[in-house]
User: Which sequence fits this backbone?
């Protein structure tokens, strides 16, 4: 119960924060751009909406821009914003005077970030759905998609990208808890992300945990060593980062 109360408290803190707006705006940005692009190319709408591969095509186009650039960037910024709320409001000391253990505080904050990520993925998929069906609601000659939504396929795609985000969340969480200056975790995360993009053609690029979203998307177009399982690596990195972050947090003398 203590964890649930702490989670509820942390969830209330993030309301109306920049991270909350970033989650909503980021989820609908790419689907909205693609929707505008589809509407402006009206001549091809009929063929697209009657195609048996409509959902796969729209999903692929949305993930194309989201996975390579916007998703890692958004995770870096949102995680840092949420974690830095206590520093921003100067409320760490107040939080630590509440009857909650350091473990509960640490994992409740992390759970809020992960829940926000799930929220982002849900909103993003709603955006993909609207991108497909809105043209048929606007134009009479455009049929509603007849093909059933491939829920299992889309769920697998989302699960893989979610797993690939976890190392970024975990490492940004660690850095954000250690530094009061908001720019430090942002600069650290962006630096690692840029490094991962520069190293994309390197055969050992998979050792950089910020590259997994990109590698996941490019797996169909780029040869990856079959012995390298990037999703398992992502989970391994996440576990190491969380354990390390927890130890650093509970043993840190000055937490605020």
Assistant:
């Amino acid at each position: 119960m203590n964890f649930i109360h702490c989670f509820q408290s942390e969830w209330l803190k993030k309301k109306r924060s920049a991270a909350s707006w970033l989650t909503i705006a980021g989820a609908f940005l790419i689907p909205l751009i693609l929707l505008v692009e589809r509407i402006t190319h009206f001549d091809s709408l009929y063929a697209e909406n009657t195609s048996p591969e409509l959902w796969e095509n729209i999903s692929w186009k949305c993930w194309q821009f989201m996975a390579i650039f916007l998703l890692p960037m958004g995770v870096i910024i949102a995680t840092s914003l949420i974690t830095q709320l206590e520093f921003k409001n100067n409320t760490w000391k107040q939080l630590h005077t509440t009857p909650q253990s350091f473990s509960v505080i640490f994992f409740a904050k992390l759970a809020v970030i992960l829940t926000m990520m799930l929220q982002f993925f849900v909103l993003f998929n709603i955006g993909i759905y609207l991108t497909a069906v809105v043209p048929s609601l606007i134009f009479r000659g455009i049929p509603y998609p007849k093909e059933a939504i491939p829920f299992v396929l889309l769920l697998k795609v989302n699960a893989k990208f979610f797993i690939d985000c976890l190392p970024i969340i975990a490492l940004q969480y660690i850095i954000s808890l250690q530094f009061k200056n908001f720019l430090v975790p942002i600069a650290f995360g962006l630096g690692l992300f840029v490094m991962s993009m520069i190293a994309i053609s390197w055969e050992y690029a998979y050792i950089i945990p910020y590259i997994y979203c990109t590698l996941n998307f490019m797996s169909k177009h780029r040869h990856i060593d079959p012995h390298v399982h990037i999703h398992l690596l992502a989970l391994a990195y996440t576990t190491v980062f969380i354990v390390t972050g927890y130890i650093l947090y509970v043993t840190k003398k000055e937490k605020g």
